[in-house]
Amino acid sequence: MSAGWWRTNRWWLPVLVVALGALGWLTWRSDEVQAWWSGEPRVAHTADAEGWAQVGDVRARLAGLEAVDGLDDGYGGRIEAPDGYTLWAADVSLRSDAPAAPEGAEETFSSCEVLLRDTAGREFAAGASALAGMPYPEAPGCTGAVSSRSTQYFLTPDDAEPAEVRLVEPSLLPAYWSLPVADVG
Predict the structure, then answer these.
(1) CB-based burial of residue 64 (10 Å sphere; 0-12 exposed, 13-18 middle, 19+ buried)?
(2) The whole model's pTM is what?
(3) 71 with 87: CB under 8 angstroms?
(4) Which residues are paired to 71 by β-bridges?
């Protein structure tokens, strides 16, 4: 009786092996796709009518963006952008709806990366570290109970036309704050 079963089902056994292999491959593939998807900023949370974009409990707003001639280096000197480059100052405000940590509890802090994206799709990290003596700005806190305003500096080629300021917090990926420059008034 068992030989008859094998003979009757011999065509279904390879199909079953292939189906199980495909299921395993799809499961592995979905994990790879999920890791790829959540590893980069892909889901923009854009500003509302008042200019605030919200990710989680934190709202962010681009309060201003302007080209500046130079910066005070903190030691009585001045740092200027080299020929062919523009130095930008972006004022970013952050507010949180999250409750403050209970007394005695450890506060969690997480800073986010601030990027300036131009109309050509190029991204420039805050800090303008290519300038000698340029102080590196402190990255804003983007999680927990936060209320802050900071100025972030970017060094771009003269042909860069700013389109958006992005705030990226790794623990909140793929979501990020998208603050269009056009909304700054």
Answers:
(1) middle
(2) 0.76
(3) yes
(4) 79
β partners of residue 93? 61, 149
Cβ 118 vs Cβ 166: under 8 Å: no
What whole-number distance in Å separates Cα of residue 47 and Cα of residue 84? Answer: 32
Whether residue 174 is preceded by a cis peptide bond, meaning omega within 30 degrees of 0, is yes
Beta bridge pairs of residue 124? 116
For tokens 């974009």, the residue is 53
Q: How far apart are the C-alpha atoms of 97 and 110, rounded to whole Å?
A: 16
- pLDDT, tens digit (0-9, with 9 covering 90-100), for 56-111: 889 999 999 999 988 887 788 888 888 999 999 999 999 987 777 677 766 666 78
For residue 125, give the 3-state DSSP assignment: strand
Cα separations (Å) of 173 from 43, 56, 126? Answer: 8, 11, 19
Would you state the structure tokens that stand for residue 147, as one six-digit string? 């209320």
Work out the angle at residue 63's Cα, subtended by the Cα atoms of residues 57 and 64, and round it to the nearest 5 degrees. Answer: 145
Contacts of 44 (CB under 8 A, 6+ apart): 176, 178
* Cβ–Cβ < 8 Å for 183, 122: no
pLDDT at 110: 72
Do 157 and 151 meet the contact criterion of CB atoms below 8 Å apart? no
Q: Which residue, 40, 45, 41, is CA-closest to 55?
A: 45
